[in-house]
Amino acid sequence: MTTDDAILVRRCLTGNAEAIGQLVSRFNGDVYGLCVRLLHHRQDAEDVAQEVFLRVFRSLGGWDPSRPLRPWVLGITVNRCRTWIAQRKRRPELVDYLQDVVAGSAPDDSAELLTEIHAALAELRLDYRTVFLLFHEQSQPYEEIALTLGRPVGTIKTWLHRARLEILDRLRRRGMVSEEENTRS
Question: How far is the first Cα of the chain from the last one, in angstroms, to the nearest whole number?
Fold first, then answer.
């Protein structure tokens, strides 16, 4: 917990518009980025990110000031994404969304590898994918991921290891990585 977080939250709770804007701007990139990577649709990510901030401000009074704010916000993000995914499975996907699917295009020869990595990530179970993205894309330490997901650090390390193995296995099966490269990793 930082004193800055506690001060910001107190100001938000009093309805201070500037503080509310600061909180949104501080976490918007992380929240939206995580939503895009977990949901694979920019429009869905925008909708869920808005829901996340509504939930954050509705629940701000329940935030424990002895704990860091960022993992708490990202925990809400992960939970809203889980709910969205569960709801999406119950409704048909609209054709309009097909053009909004996040595509990983790289300007060099790695485009095919990047496409395979994205496909492998999409196939991971949500817990593994979430830990992988928080660790590798948002550079969060194990402890912060553990706080975000409400799991022990050992579980986070295990999930990250399993995610890496599953991605590597897919890349090996698809001929993108040789067995020799697997043993060096």
Answer: 35
Q: Which pLDDT tens digit goes with each residue over 63-77?
A: 999 889 999 999 999
Q: What is the pLDDT of residues 121-138, one digit of tens each?
A: 888 999 999 999 999 888
Residue 41: strand pairing partners:
101
In the chain the domains, ranked by start, together with CATH numbers, are 1-93 (1.10.1740.10), 107-185 (1.10.10.10)
Amino acid at 175: G
Q: Which residues, including other chains, have CB under 8 Å from residue 6's CB and lie 6 or more apart? A: 65
Distances (CA, A) of 102 to 15, 115, 118, 154, 171: 36, 11, 9, 31, 20
Global pTM value:
0.64
Residue with tokens 């949500």: 126
Give the DSSP letter string of 83-98: HHHHHHHTSPPPGGGG
Query: What is the percentage of the chain residues whose pLDDT exceeds 70?
Result: 82
